[in-house]
Design brief:
The structure is a single chain. With 89 residues, this protein is an alpha/beta fold. The protein has a single domain, classed as Brix domain (Rossmann fold), CATH 3.40.50.10480. The chain has two helices and five strands; from the N terminus they run βαβαβββ. It has a five-stranded mixed beta sheet with strand order 2-1-3-4-5, sandwiched between helices.
Length: 89
């Protein structure tokens, strides 16, 4: 799994995403201006089946959205779940 953030995330959210990636034994990719399609292509080439996007609410990491990638590089939105308060921020 690849972990990244939504675009223009705060430093606090980026730090939380990096910690989340470590706990998931995964790796973090800086989002920058990458589109979802670019992230999916990168993950697919690396052989990954999921991308976790950490989104923020009021400047703090709050939600993780998953994207599932099939063996042909097609993707769809997966689960979305709340991050418990004060877990990563």
């Amino acid at each position: 799994m690849i972990v990244t953030t939504s675009r223009y995330a705060s430093k606090k959210t980026r730090s939380a995403a990096i910690e989340f990636a470590k706990k998931q034994k995964s790796f973090y990719v800086a989002r920058g201006k990458k589109t979802i399609a670019q992230l999916v292509e990168f993950a697919w080439r690396k052989g990954e089946e999921k991308i976790a996007i950490v989104r923020e609410r009021k400047g703090t990491a709050a939600v993780v959205d998953e994207i599932e990638i099939d063996q042909w590089g097609k993707w769809k939105w997966g689960k979305s779940y709340e991050i418990p308060c004060n877990t990563y921020g």
